[in-house]
Every structure is written in C-alpha cells, then in structure tokens.
Amino acid sequence: MLQALTLILGCQLIGESLVLVFKLPLPGPVLGMLLLFSGLLLRGRLAPALEQTADSLLGHLPLLFVPAGVGVMVHWERLQAHWPALLAAVVLGTLITLVVTALTLIGARALMNRRQDA
Questions:
Q1: Taking burial as the number of CB atoms within 10 A of a residue's CB, which of 50, 83, 89, 111 is the most buried?
Q2: What are the start-end ranges of the H helices in the chain?
C-alpha cells in the first residue's frame, strides 16, 4: 500500500512541478492524474495494491470536502454578493458536463459497436 500511495503522490508531485516549471494553465493534480493514467495504459493492467489503495482513498473522499465547506462559510458575504454569477456558472457548467458526457458515451458506444462488428 505504501508503494502505491507513493506512486499516486509522486505522479501528483511531478504534475505540480511540470505546471510550475512550464507555467501550464492546468492544475497540477490533474496533470499528475493524466500521467498516472498514461502509465497505467502503457502497462496494460492495474496492480492489485494500487487498486486497493485507490479504493481506500475513494472511501475517504468525503473528508476532502470539509475544507471547501469551511471556505464557503468564511466567504459567505462574498457569495451573497455574487450569487447570480455563481448560480449561472454552476447551472451552465452542469449542463455542459451533461452534454459532453452524453456525447462521450455515444462515441464510446459507437466505437465498441465497430469493434464488435469487426
């Protein structure tokens, strides 16, 4: 489990470092996740220890939302002042996410059907 956690955090560190060095407009953890995903694609399979560690982290995911909730309460006045823009961002972001997810699903199903037909 320690090796798997080291791999996950190492990918995040590399992602953060690359973002800082090259001034990329992308969050470091996202780039680290892409690096980890690329490594898993190259390897072709998921190590059981990595799967167990990832499942354990996902089981404790709600704890990561506590600091965000505290931040919301600290900046409550700011949120009240800008609620129309925030509401629009949340609604539009949700709609865009739903559309992109649906299009991705349609594309993935079409690709899978082509593979099955071949």
A1: 50
A2: 2-22, 28-43, 48-59, 66-74, 76-81, 83-117
Q: Is 1 helix (H, G, I), strand (E, B) or coil?
A: coil
Average pLDDT, rounded, for the chain:
92
Q: What tokens were used for 116?
A: 């099955």
CB 49 within 8 A of CB 3: yes
The reported pLDDT for the residue numbered 71 is: 81
What SS3 state is found at 27?
A: coil
pTM for this predicted structure: 0.58
**What whole-number distance in Å separates Cα of residue 56 and Cα of residue 48?**
12
Between the alpha carbon of residue 90 and those of residues 56, 83, 93, 103, the distances in Å are: 29, 10, 5, 20
93, two tokens = 């972001």
Terminal CA-CA length for the chain: 40
Q: For the segment 41-50, what is each residue's pLDDT rounded down to a tens digit?
A: 999 888 999 9
